[in-house]
Amino acid sequence: MLNSRFVLIAVTSVAAVGYSIYFLVRRVSPSLGFFHSKEPSNASHEGQDNSTLTSSGYTGPIFFKPPDAKEEAIYKILGSHPCIVKYFGTDPQTGEIMLPSLRKGDLLFHLKTHPSIPLATRLTWAIEIAQGVAHLHARDVIWADPHLQNVLLTDDYHAVLCDFGISVYQAPYSYKFSRGPPPMYACPLGYIARTPRRKDIFGLGVILFVLLSERFPFHDDLSPSPPKEIEAMQRHEEISNDVISRDDGDFDFDKLSPELHRYFGNIVNKCFAIRYQAADVLVTELKEAFSHWRKENEPILVGTDHLNVDLPYPRHPVHCPIEPVQRQYFRESWGPPVYISDLTQD
């Protein structure tokens, strides 16, 4: 009889290969439409018949995405939030989704092309990303596609989430995800019995690790090859099997540097082990760790103020009140999975 762990790892390997091919194809093939969009319009949007755009006071160029009723619905559910890319409705003629054209680009590209970004700024981005995901979870939305290329930088270098084409609203516990982020960010199959928010929580762990370490887990830089992505995915899969079977906290995830592990190591490990139900608690703990780190490293921070003077990087995240996530998932061994909040409804 085949060892169940061997079978799971073999399935993971096949899935990782397929996942890599799928992600590559969807990035380069406009016909699939997931990441295809027009070039940002250089023309003024004045005269557009769109009340949201007019009332926003935005005067920059507009980025048009192909019509997508599902993504449009998600934007409407999320509403306005400082850590979510602004949504200006749809073009009245074409139905395309209208967003601001953020010319600073995505966060992964910026990290690769600017190797001397202050740690305080990278932590600022980590908190802003987590705040954005916490807002999604408070609106009962699962991002389902967490990765650094789905984080954009505003003109003043703050981080905002984008791309909700595969996001899920009010997912049941047993929801089966058909798509997700690149393999390096993918939640291991071994966590399939955990909360559906596991995809976001695990992806946040990878993002936080990258921002702290300037490399991907189980890799030495920010540019892993497809085979290296699969290798890292398999490493996390092997660890997730052990985490599920024991709860002593002694995990073998890739470690942060010792000087950062004492502040943020437990948070990263809890993301990798899916110890958070939702991102609201994660944000609270991350902010506390950031405050503690700042207090103890203020002399170092003052000494780095001269770095990147040509780029006005933020050193503090935008302030966002954290809305507690109301719907908490749990499942009973004797019945189907339900929401805790469902038990209190009349």
From TrEMBL:
The chain crosses the membrane at residues 6-25. Residues 1-290 form the Protein kinase domain. One of its GO terms (molecular function) is ATP binding. The keyword Transport does not apply. It comes from the Eukaryota. The keyword Mitochondrion does not apply. Signal peptide: none annotated. InterPro entries: Kinase-like_dom_sf (IPR011009), Prot_kinase_dom (IPR000719), Ser/Thr_Kinases-Pseudokinases (IPR051681). SMART domains: S_TKc. Keywords: Membrane, Transmembrane, Transmembrane helix. Gene3D superfamilies: Transferase(Phosphotransferase) domain 1 (1.10.510.10). PANTHER family: SERINE/THREONINE-PROTEIN KINASE TNNI3K-RELATED. This is Protein kinase domain-containing protein. It comes from Galerina marginata (strain CBS 339.88).
